[in-house]
Design brief:
With 177 residues, this protein is an alpha+beta fold. It has four helices and eight strands.
């Protein structure tokens, strides 16, 4: 699917494929140095290319999971992953993460990824609840999630340690009707 960005360029979104693994791992390595809001820092993303390839394959073979990538000028610039539980009692819910390279913040990449994801989740007969975590001082992300109907449901005290200081993590969730 093709989307117009605020800067006039066009971006596409599609499911991640195993062949994307190397580029995704490199993207995460770069992201780790661009933002303190991720759970990993520079060169701290722990998946190898092979592990990422297996992760993509596993998600693509399950009905309650999704892994999508945003592509601009033939390069992956962001993604969304949603991992639903494999347990029957929990398969209706899962954890979502969204990430965009800093060079592409503020032009609609995250918005388009989120809207694509929520459309998929709403049409999926299994998914009834989306969970995510966000560090307390990332007000831009918190406001972004709230705009899409996510609510703060809890707090993990001292959930992240960034530059010598502890921060709480908010658990946020969205129920699909």
């Amino acid at each position: 699917m093709v989307y117009d960005l605020k800067d006039g360029r066009k971006m596409s979104i599609r499911r991640a494929e195993e062949r994307d693994a190397d580029e995704i791992v490199k993207m995460y390595a770069k992201m780790g140095g661009e933002s303190d809001n991720l759970t990993f820092g520079i060169d701290d993303f722990y998946f190898t290319e092979e592990q990422e390839r297996i992760f993509i394959s596993n998600l693509n073979n399950r009905n309650n999971c999704l892994y999508i990538v945003a592509i601009l000028d033939n390069k992956i610039i962001g993604n969304v992953s949603f991992v639903g539980s494999q347990r029957k009692k929990l398969e209706h819910r899962g954890d979502m993460g969204i990430a965009v390279l800093k060079d592409f913040w503020g032009i609609g990449v995250g918005k388009n990824l989120m809207e694509y994801f929520l459309k998929w989740a709403s049409s999926n007969e299994i998914i009834k609840k989306i969970d995510l975590q966000v560090v307390e001082n990332n007000t831009a992300a918190i406001n972004f999630y709230m705009k899409y109907g996510f609510k703060i449901e809890g707090r993990i005290t001292k959930g992240m340690y960034i530059n010598g200081k502890y921060y709480d993590i908010y658990n946020m969730g969205k129920i699909l009707e």
